[in-house]
Design goal:
The chain has eleven helices and eight strands. The protein has 294 residues and is of the alpha/beta class. It has one domain: TIM Barrel (Alpha-Beta Barrel). The chain has an eight-stranded parallel β-barrel with strand order 1-2-3-4-5-6-7-8, surrounded by four helices. Helix 5 packs parallel to helix 6 and helix 9 runs antiparallel to helix 10. The longest helix has 21 residues. The chain binds flavin-adenine dinucleotide. Flavin-adenine dinucleotide binds next to strand 3, strand 4, helix 5, helix 6 and strand 6.
Length: 294
């Protein structure tokens, strides 16, 4: 079946207006897929520029990434950016996956090394596989030059990097290999993003750097995610969450308010858009889009 190819996200940046996008993760089972359809239905009222779907460290959720990406594209008409990682794949497998993604009409890929599978602490290169994301950028661009590729950036340093400087070298390698834009790891303090953008610029990294924002939905969850990603919670946010205690609805209000303040400031300082890590929940994304409506 012929699929209408998606627009490359790089062409959307060229229009010089802030892009808004959402990130989903693939559900584990068919019930989860149905729930995600409901979420997508609720979100469809907002003209999101694109949505992305993460890629698991292994197992059946990987097939779900393809399934959910196809649903979002073909049933909802979203421009979809599937994620792809090096974990557990040989070069031949990655080329075959690239062909499949391309044949499905997708023209945008979030290109990553990937996190190690559950139970492993360190990343291990697969047999005839790739070690770093820049190698995957090179492979994908060679296979399909019309792919538009996003890569991850870490304003508070990737947890494995010895310094921010070597991490910026790694980021530059990804951009030099052909990455079209950067989406950042989540952060809660905008000063961290502004400094990162300046450092990237001084490092000769000149592609759009889209801030990744996660509205707090639960205190316990955000503390775990912040620890894993190496993102620091600013003291005022921590204090507010402490006062909210176990009142989930109050925590959500605080989370939306904080994210709203962050995004207003980011766009006010010229950020090229915002990418929301919404953990498959519609409410915060809708509240933020409404709060930002001019
Ligand atoms: C926007 C975004 C989306 C994500 N989506 C997913 C997802 O869908 N699935 C998933 O599993 N994970 C995802 N992640 C997490 C990501 O896979 C992990 O952070 C992973 O540990 C690093 O991936 P990377 O692509 O940034 O790797 P790389 O850019 O390869 O960097 C990995 C580490 O190696 C270092 N490094 C890179 N190149 C070199 C080199 N040549 N020599 C020495 N050191 C080097 C870097 O400094 C860094 O410390 C996402 C992250 C972000 C920011």
């Amino acid at each position: 079946m012929f699929m209408t190819p998606d627009r490359p996200i790089s062409a959307l940046f060229a229009a010089n207006r802030p892009l808004r996008s959402l990130e989903f993760y693939p559900p584990k089972d068919d019930v989860g897929v149905e729930a995600l359809r409901q979420t997508a239905t609720a979100l469809k009222s907002i003209p999101w520029d694109f949505v992305s779907v993460t890629y698991g460290a292994g197992g059946s959720t990987r097939e779900r990434t393809a399934q959910v990406s196809a649903i979002f594209k073909n049933e909802f008409g979203f421009t979809v950016m599937p994620h792809l990682t090096c974990v557990g794949h040989s070069r031949d497998e990655l080329n075959a996956l690239a062909d499949r993604i391309h044949a499905g009409g997708f023209r945008n890929i979030m290109t990553l090394r990937g996190d190690p599978p559950k139970g492993s602490i360190t990343f291990e290169v697969a047999a005839d596989g790739l070690r770093y994301a820049n190698e995957l950028v090179t492979l994908l661009k060679a296979r399909h030059p019309d792919f538009c590729l996003g890569v991850g950036g870490y304003p508070e340093k990737h947890p494995e990097a010895v310094s921010l400087e070597t991490d910026l070298d790694a980021l530059k390698r990804k951009v030099d290999a052909g990455a079209d834009f950067i989406t950042t790891q989540l952060f809660f303090d905008n000063a961290v993003y502004h400094r990162f953008v300046d450092r990237c610029s001084a490092h000769g990294i000149n592609v759009p750097i889209v801030p990744g924002i996660m509205p707090v939905l639960s205190t316990k969850q955000i503390l775990r995610i912040a620890t894993l990603s190496g993102s620091v919670l600013p003291a005022p946010l921590s204090r507010r969450l402490e006062v909210a205690g176990d009142h989930a609805d109050v925590v959500e209000i605080i989370g939306i308010d904080w994210a709203l303040t962050q995004i207003r400031d980011l766009l006010g300082h010229g950020a090229p858009g915002y990418h929301l890590y919404i953990l498959n929940r519609a409410k915060s994304a809708l509240a933020l889009a409404a709060g930002l409506a001019a």
